[in-house]
Amino acid sequence: QVQLVESGGGLVQPGGSLRLSCAASGTIFSMNAMGWYRQAPGKQRELVAAITSDGVTEYADSAKGRFTISSDNAKNTVYLQMNSLKRADTAVYYCNAEGTTWSNDDFDSWGQGTQVTVSS
Question: How far is Cα 118 from Cα 71, in angstroms, rounded to an integer?
């Protein structure tokens, strides 16, 4: 069983910055990828950014140039540095992790979500 714990959300003014963190724990044998998704009220959950264990990154168009995803493989932790935040970035941000457990089962786990509110 794999658990994800997110932190770093909060209230920030437009143009400000936040850094989200997500730590995975449990029976993790190998981690394939970790990522961040978000869901705004009345909208579907969407990918914000993802990173593989090899360091390959993927960003939503809305995140390119403003957000940076990084990871610490030794700690099974992923970060999302968000700069130049806009009101449109307001959402609940969810961490996701995919990999394999020690019992050779694939996992696709989600965190509980952390609220990011961009408002003056």
Answer: 24
Q: What integer is the mean pLDDT of 15-41?
A: 97
Mean pLDDT confidence for 56-67: 98
Q: Supply the Cα-derived Rg of the chain in whole angstroms.
A: 14
The total of other beta-carbon atoms located within 10 Å of residue 50's CB is 19
What CA–CA distances, in Å, run from 82 to 26, 48, 106? 27, 11, 30
Q: For position 4, what pLDDT does the model report?
A: 97
Nearest C-alpha neighbor of 82 from the set 36, 23, 44, 119: 36
Kindly tell me the burial class for residue 110, based on how many C-beta atoms sit within 10 Å of its own C-beta (0-12, 13-18, 19 or more): middle
Joined tokens for residue 60: 């939503």
* Closest CA relative to residue 12, chosen from 65, 109, 66, 89: 89
- Helix or strand run (H / E) with residue 72: strand 67-72
**Contact of 98 with 52, CB cutoff 8 Å:** no
